[in-house]
């Protein structure tokens, strides 16, 4: 019985139907922190696993571990280098220990739309940035967008001033800290799987995230409402260990890379629709969403955008200009 139960637990842990690898197949483990379904990253990871398991059957087998069931975003970076997992997709905000260049993606109000993000990430400058973590032993395989971020708190936020004195959970990003402090609020870095509890118990008053994270993690249930600020990008680096990638047979590596490229394109094309669906799901579940007038939004922009200057030295003015020129 115990054997049967643990087999059941393992099957439930891995989110895709192909989790049972055959003898002789190389196992590719993909660990991430979000919902397995109805989320741009959860769905992209499943799509990738389905394609690898079908097209590389007999050679490779991918298992996906969603919802921080295997590692959180800090631990997963170490696990990649140790070979305990082969793929991860932490948000670009979580790479501060490996490169300061990705601070670019966290600059508030840099990208007006997800199309502008796509224009930049597929440009030469964007592709070059995939290499930013190479010296640390990682290879970036692609950018996966997740959405633009919205603020929520335990009280209504209409003007940035409303956030004054509140404490917000942020990712491990100094840009986010600076941005929150510019609002007269304080920031606390917390792992993603700690956010719901921290909001519920009042350890923090608010948070900022994409529609699909706010919906699938049920943050809206423990907040007064969500303010549609679209103030910052949430996007991921699909990342692997360079040692693992270089250790693959050339034809296996080529096939794997061509599948990851195709899935990256397909997943990014679908993000805006998935985000719109999550926004609607929040409304349908009784969540409160506050839209801003153009004048109100301008106040958020003028409060937060000055932080760009603080990080220009780490990122480079040329890169900021190249990213800012997309879609503006
Ligand atoms: C967060 O920590 O808020 C996000 O990076 C989680 C995620 O992976 O979307």
From TrEMBL:
Gene3D superfamilies: Bacterial extracellular solute-binding protein, family 7. The keyword Calcium does not apply. Pfam families: DctP. The keyword Protein transport does not apply. Keywords: Signal, Transport. Residues 1-19 form the signal peptide. Belongs to the bacterial solute-binding protein 7 family. PANTHER family: C4-DICARBOXYLATE-BINDING PROTEIN DCTB, PTHR33376. This is DctP family TRAP transporter solute-binding subunit.
